[in-house]
Amino acid sequence: MLTKWGLIVSLMLILLNSACSEKTPAVSEPSMAQRQEAQVLNNRAALFLRQQRLQRALTILKQALELDPNLGQAHFNIGLVQARLGEHVAAIKSFEKALKLTPQVADLLFALGVSLRSQHRYLEAAGRFQEAIALVPDKAAYHFHLGEVQRSASDFAAAIDAFEATIRLDSTHLEALYYYGDLLARDDQTDKAKMAWRRLLQIQPQAVPTLLGLGGVYLKEQDAAQAVALFQRAIQAEPRHTQAHYLLSQAYRQAGQEVLGDTALKQFQRLSTAQKHFEQGNLYAYRGELTAAIESFNLAVQVDTAFVAAYVRLGMAHLRADSKAQALVNAKQAVSQAHEGDLALIEALCLVGDVSLSMANAEAAKQAFAQAIETDYSSERAHFGLARSHYQLYEQNEALDEFDLTLKLNPDQREAYYYRGLIFMTQQRLQDAVLSFQQCIKIDPKYAPAHYAVGRLLVQQRDYSGAAKAYKKALDLGHPKAKEQLAALAPHVKTVP
């Protein structure tokens, strides 16, 4: 699996981009007005689907099918939502309904094949992909996923053909180039394998799985010098890649460089031990066993003092255990160990910000989140953290700007709407506050602070009955101050709900 290329992410983007909004012939006989309204709802849902606002899309699609149960595109889009949510059994049923209503749709056959593959129904998936290819033979993605299911079904010769077809249609298809080379290498077609992998490295020079695969071919051919160079490139790209260190040790030994081989082997053993402690710590943290998690993460950084992700997780565990000072120490250790391009650097900087906010040091938090944004402007977490820092510093306009940026990155970030509502309340922009709280509640009806804030807002407007209902909802959801506020309304309402 090529983690850097994000195979799963690219697969889901293909499905989301095929969310349909075209009109399709209705099979049943709803009224013309019902058909038109159902189509409008389907089109709206398709937009939410492409924005990955899945629950909203699903709600609207169900409304569309109530009006026109035979709207094939709505069944298709429901299947896409279900597939994105990992509900592939339900997705298969939705796709099959859509297929009966709108046959001969290539993207629908492709989506059905993807969900069938997720259930290990490889032969059925291959059949659907082949049907899609028959309809649209020049789409590289169809050939690639056909190759994937054939590879999973151990039909390697057919998979090679499918990946070759993919590359013919898209010579820069990284996953196809990798798997094509991998299968050729396994079939001892090493010259073709090396050609495919070299082409891939021209496109992505730091593709670690390809560097390791090509290096492995040279190692098998007793060309130790080429193998060493490739494994060193892999380690430069991913310094903690354990397999790269192990293969490098083998290449050094093949070249007769025993001392270097021993050094590389010791590094492999050290990193493997640290990784083992790290994974154990993650398991303990998931279970809520924070003392054991902290112990495991400590062992990981003792073995590997440059293990950035372990420092981050150690800091997170301390923060959950309310050891804020130690959490901040660990977060800063992570930042100091991280290098440019390290994926854990953003997480480390945001952790510094989160801990600083919890310690009421909003200025330090602002600096950390700003640095995270400089490193990766697309970080939703960093923008949200910077917005909260501005909020704590009473820099309301700056906070609103950052909450707006947060919502551009994630339109369903409920707390961004909540904080916007609080700011609008202090600015006496009451209608804007109402809209923000309503949007927050629409995203998460069980978010108690939003219901409580609505109660406060309605009290300001002297709508005591409405405020009582909002406080009662907040109380039912466990808000700690709602009971007190509800009791304070008793003189103003006939019956407290």
Plain-language structure description:
By secondary structure, this protein is mainly α. Among the domains are: 1-103, Tetratricopeptide repeat domain (Serine Threonine Protein Phosphatase 5, Tetratricopeptide repeat, Alpha Horseshoe); 205-256; 267-376, Serine Threonine Protein Phosphatase 5, Tetratricopeptide repeat (Alpha Horseshoe), CATH 1.25.40. The chain has 27 helices and no strands. It is flat. Helix 20 (362-375) runs antiparallel to helix 21 (380-392), helix 25 (448-460) runs antiparallel to helix 26 and helix 26 runs antiparallel to helix 27 (482-488).
What layout of secondary structure does this protein have?
Blueprint: H1 7-17, H2 32-50, H3 54-67, H4 72-84, H5 88-101, H6 106-118, H7 122-135, H8 140-152, H9 156-169, H10 174-186, H11 190-203, H12 208-220, H13 224-237, H14 242-254, H15 258-287, H16 290-303, H17 308-320, H18 324-337, H19 343-358, H20 362-375, H21 380-392, H22 396-409, H23 414-426, H24 430-443, H25 448-460, H26 464-476, H27 482-488
- Helices, by number, come to 27
Structural class category: mainly alpha
What sort of overall outline do the alpha carbons produce when their principal axes are compared?
Answer: flat
The residue fraction in helices comes out at over 70%
Reported for the largest beta sheet, the result is: none
- Do you know the CATH topology of the domain at 267-376? Serine Threonine Protein Phosphatase 5, Tetratricopeptide repeat
Mean pLDDT across all amino acids = 92
Q: Could you give the order of the helices and strands?
A: HHHHHHHHHHHHHHHHHHHHHHHHHHH
The CATH class of the domain at 267-376, by name, is Mainly Alpha
| Uncertain spans | 1-16, 21-27
State the distance separating the first and last CA atoms.
56 Å
